[in-house]
Amino acid sequence: MKPAATLALLLVALAAAAQAPPLEISSEPLPRAFLQRAYSFRLEASGGVPPLTMRVAAGNLPPGLELASSGRLSGTPTDVGGYEFTVEVSDSAQPAHSARREYRLKVVRPLAVTWKSPPEVRGRGIYGSAEVMNSSETPADVTVIIVAVNQYGKAFVLGYDRGPMGADAAPHAVEFGATLPMGRYSVRVDAIAEVAPRHEIWRDALATPAPLAVTAPP
Q1: Buried-exposed string 141-160: b where 16+ CB fall within 10 A, e elsewhere
Q2: CA trace torsion 148, 150, 155, 160 (10° rounding)
Q3: 118-155: per-residue pLDDT in tens?
Q4: Is the peptide bond before 29 cis (omega within 30 degrees of 0)?
Q5: Strand, helix or coil at 96?
Q6: What's the pTM value of the predicted model, to 2 decimals?
Q7: Angle at Cα 135 formed by Cα 188 and Cα 30, nearest 5°?
Q8: What is the dotted CATH code of the domain comprising 3-108?
Q9: Average pLDDT of 54-82?
Q10: Residue 178: burial class (beta carbons within 10 Å; 0-12, 13-18, 19+)
Q11: Looking at residue 151, what DSSP letter applies?
Q12: Looking at the domain covering 111-214, what would its CATH class be?
């Protein structure tokens, strides 16, 4: 290409870059992600000289997610937690312009069970309460079973609950407890959600870190 033509193209590119609106990334918050469920969200950018390219400039995405150069954030999260990262968008100007924005993405379990009152020995039995929460956007039919398993592997039912839970419902408490034979017991909570609209089954579980000893005879 002749020098004059090259200079002309450069002047056109410089003029286009000068006339382009400022480059920026949308400040819209990221919707939360759910453990082991497909996630997809597009980060929007505007201004600059197209085409635009995005990348993670700092921080870490949740394990299992990737950011495409087009701005599509997708994948299946494999771990819960809060993740902070910075996205940079660059345009095609010569030299390129860039802009950055920080994001936070929270990965939660769609169904989660926690101790409300951790199990404890009271006299001749074990008693406590658990909380189950449907954090998703989909109603579910939830079953909760609490058992105490002794040192011989024999299980005793301490509590049971079943019923519908709405989307993003408040935590539901399940009280449990029973008189037990003398022995050392591990207490376990199992929560299972049947999600008919999505044809899915969600599970979560909780267990005591150490056995509890019932020393008084029933």
Answers
A1: ebebbbbbbbeeeeebebbe
A2: -10
A3: 999 999 999 999 999 999 989 999 999 999 999 999 99
A4: no
A5: coil
A6: 0.74
A7: 135
A8: 2.60.40.10
A9: 97
A10: middle
A11: T
A12: mainly beta
